[in-house]
Amino acid sequence: MDWLTIGEVARRSGVATSALRFYETKGLIASQRTDGNQRRYPRATLRRVALIRAGQEVGLSLSELAEALQHLPHDKTPTRIDWERLSQAWRSRLDSQIAELVALRDELTDCIGCGCLSLTSCAIFNPGDAASRLGTGPRYLLGDSRDSVAADS
Amino acid sequence: MDWLTIGEVARRSGVATSALRFYETKGLIASQRTDGNQRRYPRATLRRVALIRAGQEVGLSLSELAEALQHLPHDKTPTRIDWERLSQAWRSRLDSQIAELVALRDELTDCIGCGCLSLTSCAIFNPGDAASRLGTGPRYLLGDSRDSVAADS
DNA sequence: CCTCAACTTCAACTCAACTTGACGTCGAGG
DNA sequence: CCTCGACGTCAAGTTGAGTTGAAGTTGAGG
Fold first, then answer.
1. A-chain residues within 8 Å CB-CB of B120?
2. Lowest pLDDT segment from A16-25, B46-55, B59-68, B83-92
3. Which of A86, A104, B17, B87 is 20 to 30 A distant from A16 in Cα terms?
């Protein structure tokens, strides 16, 4: 097995070295150290990083990814089973994300159709259920409102 | 026209008062002040806030929303034209977002189908174009990688 | 008139996912 | 042996969308 420096991994994965070090602190990837304390990554790290970026695109946070990747070996090719488990999970994630957006779009389309400027009954303004989970961060309040926007001007 | 206190708007829109003040500093909503310097919002603010939350769900940032809402009157019902312009814009936003996710899902499905553990040619790991724009914040590096993950272990 | 919840401002904190900078060390080529 | 770029650590900064707290003011009900 040959080992890659952090710079090589960065170049080949398109991820900055700072990000790789950051991933390592989060336990997403792992390295050996040389005598001189430099990181050396196993080749399989390239795949791991690719998986991380792909996972982020699917909307997963780094901690969720850490969860998911913890079942994959750090230093060798994952088995087909590993890979299928992962991709199935991501696929269903994508499926539900798509479903949510489609629902939102359809509601919006109806809104345009009905021209309901009152918004009193318009579904889009009375969310009902968690169509949230789009975008990270301080989105935690979005979707937990219970009060509706009734009796509009 | 009767005016609402910040607390009333918060209760009826399901948005915290702190968020409402924050929106006001960003120019998303506007208020009159009482003699005692308290905010009083026009009723139309309820709709504005609803639009803001809906817009966020569609993936718009507050500054983009400020842009969009600046053409709507702060204190009265928007015209049908206003409303149609807005919802058309959001619909196309949703459409492209959906398209991106669907593309990603299809690629992933192919990956599972082909069982390509090598990831050498797998489309999902060689993104190619900006399917990013999921989630806010320091996502600015995602999608500007040019190097591919070739020659896997 | 008094009280108390609801309001005011302002600064500081949160969170995720990193980046940037300072300052110091490693190691391959000449 | 020297140099210079690539590496190391650690602390602090960034962005977006707010929240939290302190300290003080307002205003409706009793």
1. none
2. B83-92
3. A86
